[in-house]
Amino acid sequence: MNNVQFNNNVMIKKTLFLTLILSGYLGYSQTKLDGYIETGLKNNEVIKQHNFDINKSMYALKEARSLFYPTVSLNGNYTKADGGRTIDIPVGDMLNPVYSTLNQITNSNAFPSLQNQSVLINPDNFYDAKIHTTMPLLNFEIIYNKRIKNQQTSLQKIELEIYQRELVKDIKIAYYKYLQSVEGIKIYQEALVLVKENKRVNQSLYKNDKINRTAVLRSDNEVIRIEANLETAKQVSKNAQSYFNFLLNQKLDTPIEVDESKSLPTEALSENTQNREELQKLTQVKEINETVGKLTQSYWFPKLGGFADVGFQDFDFNVNKDSRYYFAGVSLEMNIFSGNKNKYKLKQVEEDSKKISSQTDNVRQQLLLQFQVAQNNLKAALEQYNANKNQKESAKKYNDDITKLYKEGQAIYIELLDAQNQWVNAQLNTNISLYISWIAYAELERANATFTLK
């Protein structure tokens, strides 16, 4: 093992150990956050639109399945005609000589002479009423069309899961930023109490001629500065609250329940990017493209269908046993030549397949990079939090010591002010790094697709 690998392993183990030592369980806060996530997934309008698309795809699939069933319709027509083309039937010319001979033989007129007939081609006063039934017996276009609709429905569901994961990540980050802003308000409120006390003490010391007016003026400025920072923090918190409620699709001023936990993320995530929905989506797209190729190839396959008619037809609206009829059969269609149209369609499908394979390789690398960057960001955030936490403890001790010395008259106000600023900044930095760690964890969780969607 080379030195680089050894150092990387040591850093990973150190980070994991640091995470487990510094962290506890995030119970109550996580439960509230899960509730907010459930609300966001339920109320989000874009998710509703995705569900509408999925429902539409399901109906399209049912429509494709219905093509396998017979189609039955009631058809009827009535015709009234006069003139036009006719069919001449020379009945008289053919039978009159025969009839004349028979009359001579029988010495009678039993066989009258006949006139030649002329029949209209268009039927006059004719009706036809029937039940017409058709059914595909063998049609690969219908088979592959159903398969494509089914695959498109699966694709819609995958796209919905992708959006849901993004929404979960956004809700978590917005929640952590709101908690960060609330904690920042508390820090500034405590700092305001501290500087106001300093102002009171300095005014008292000034009245007793123990300090000069400079310390009083400086303490006044500190009160004004902290009040301004506190007001800014409140506005930042309101903005964070509005954005969080916007993601949940509820009123922007809806109160947000806040937990006081200071724990850190404890779960170490192993790389799982191969199960990302983005790759599943490309796999589904590839399957659809393959089915489209089979659909194009089915051009050469025969199409076999059946039909049957049952009904009545006659003149003058007569209905009797002679009017009844049925007519049934099968049809066969087989394409022979189309000017290489389908050949070029298959070439397009092949190029699309190559493009999808290239996209899959590129997306796989991007997802792996995203995971590694998010993992490194989390490690850096945890290390920064540890450093800020130690600085916070040191700044607290230093501030307590200087405050005691100042009250005893052994330290000047500038030293006290410096110690207090270090203490406030250390609290703010620790608060920021705490929630940056949680934000980094949310991004890592998204990069690894480990959040369980209900």
Automatic annotation (TrEMBL):
A molecular function (GO) term: porin activity
Keyword Nucleotide-binding: no
Superkingdom assignment: Bacteria
Keywords for the protein's UniProt record, in alphabetical order: Cell outer membrane, Coiled coil, Membrane, Transmembrane, Transmembrane beta strand, Transport
Localization per Swiss-Prot or TrEMBL: Cell outer membrane
Gene3D superfamilies documented for this protein: Outer membrane efflux proteins (OEP)
Coiled-coil segments: 346-408
Family that this chain belongs to: Belongs to the outer membrane factor (OMF) (TC 1.B.17) family.
The protein, known as: Outer membrane protein TolC
Organism: Flavobacterium aquicola
